[in-house]
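Board notes (copied after class):
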Amino acid sequence: MQVEAARRGAFGWALVRLDPGERFISEAGSMFRVSGNVDIDVTTRSRGTGGLLSGIKRMIAGENFFFSTFTVTDGAPAEVGLAPKLQGEVAVIECDGRRKWVCAGGSYLGSSPELNIDTQFQGIRGVLSGESLSFLSVEGAGPLIVNAFGKMTEIDVSGELTVDTGHVVAFEDSLTYSIGKAGGSWVQSFLTSEGLTLKFSGRGRLYVQSHNPDEFGKSIGPLLPPRRT
């Protein structure tokens, strides 16, 4: 299995090359091309666990209810092309199994079947953040594809770093985080529309995105014509 990502530019995508007998999993609806010798199965399960409940938990986390599983059906190699819904860069993270990765809502694009995907609820922290109520926890060894809205940057955190909640893509679970306010007080944070932040501490890798999809939606929504029923 080989996974390549075209990160540069506003329209990132990923190409997965599969050998005979191999499989790959993606968020449902992200495939834009596939070889003729590939079978596509849609399920709520990841790695054979969770079923309907896992699908509901992923919806709460801001992800798709379904997974798409691509399986090579004959003795020839195959390709699967994947792309996110929003314009932005795509990155491939090679998980080594020593640390879990945590994906923010909407950033998961695809993964090898060896990776176990589960929903990690933030509890009261998620309610206060105003963002997703939960993250996706990714465990195991294999390639993981994540996508960003806008430009994606990888940061090696050593110590402390504060990031706006809507700009987090994914991070290693060796980093701990807490919810904080952007301004000097809660009133200042509200008045300046800066909202809340995630304050990371420790050592580990972190991916951030240059643009906030929620804020983009709030800006463009009032400009769109009303829906016709």
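Comment from the instructor: The CA atoms of residues 219 and 225 lie 13 Å apart. The chain has a mean pLDDT of 83.
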